[in-house]
Structure to design on (227 residues):
């Protein structure tokens, strides 16, 4: 696991992010901050809570489950699942995930609906949109969003909004276009939440209406690169 920076460093970075949200949206709490804690130890969950983040985001099922166990089953913040979602992982995660960001196909909708029946609670989800048309990215195409949202609603899931990622090459014009497209689809569907924007493109995302930003290295520092 990667070592997290001192609390005062994290607090300063979160405060700076709140200032950016206030500058672009007029209210420091107009967008929720999801602290991306993958590869960092469970202590970052406490750090995120202490420094004013709204949730923590995990990308990998087993890492999320390990951290939940280390907290005794009581995470200090809501846990969001933000990684590629495999249908066979849903059952083990369902009791611990407050918001699913990456629902993009019928098999995942069906798996979540099954767990809703078992747990007696409707999962809160975001539908992931591949707004950059990159083959290596997950997400349904813009043309498929209405169908996936409809299937999720019919299955009893609570569709709160959409999620997307900017282009791999981080081109700012393409990034703005991808975020603007996703925001327009959300308006057309009447959904409110927009999870878009990471450390390198968070300002553009906020300018285009993000209500949730997913920030990791901008809070905890860069992760070591694996060879």
């Amino acid at each position: 696991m990667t070592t997290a920076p001192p609390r005062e460093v994290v607090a300063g970075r979160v405060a700076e992010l709140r200032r950016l949200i206030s500058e672009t949206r007029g209210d420091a709490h107009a967008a929720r901050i999801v602290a991306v804690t993958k590869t960092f130890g469970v202590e970052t969950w406490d750090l995120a809570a202490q420094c004013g983040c709204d949730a923590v985001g995990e990308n990998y099922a087993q890492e999320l489950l390990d951290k939940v166990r280390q907290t005794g089953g009581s995470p200090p913040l809501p846990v969001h699942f933000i990684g590629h979602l495999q249908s066979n992982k849903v059952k083990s995660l369902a009791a611990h995930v407050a918001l699913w960001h990456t629902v993009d196909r019928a098999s995942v909708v069906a798996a979540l609906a099954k767990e809703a029946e078992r747990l007696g609670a409707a999962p809160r989800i975001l539908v992931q949109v591949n707004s950059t048309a990159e083959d290596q990215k997950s997400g349904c195409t813009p043309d498929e969003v209405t169908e996936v949202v409809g299937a999720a609603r019919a299955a009893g899931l609570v569709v709160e909004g959409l999620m997307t990622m900017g282009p791999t090459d981080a081109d700012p014009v393409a990034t703005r276009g991808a975020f603007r497209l996703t925001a327009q689809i959300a308006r057309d569907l009447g959904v409110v939440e927009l999870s878009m924007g990471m450390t390198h493109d968070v300002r553009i995302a906020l300018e285009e209406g993000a209500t949730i930003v997913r920030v990791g290295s901008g809070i905890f520092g860069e992760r070591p690169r694996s060879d």
User: Anything to note?
Assistant: The radius of gyration is 17 Å. The domain at 7-220 is CATH 3.20.20.10 (TIM Barrel). The first strand starts at residue 32 and ends at 36.
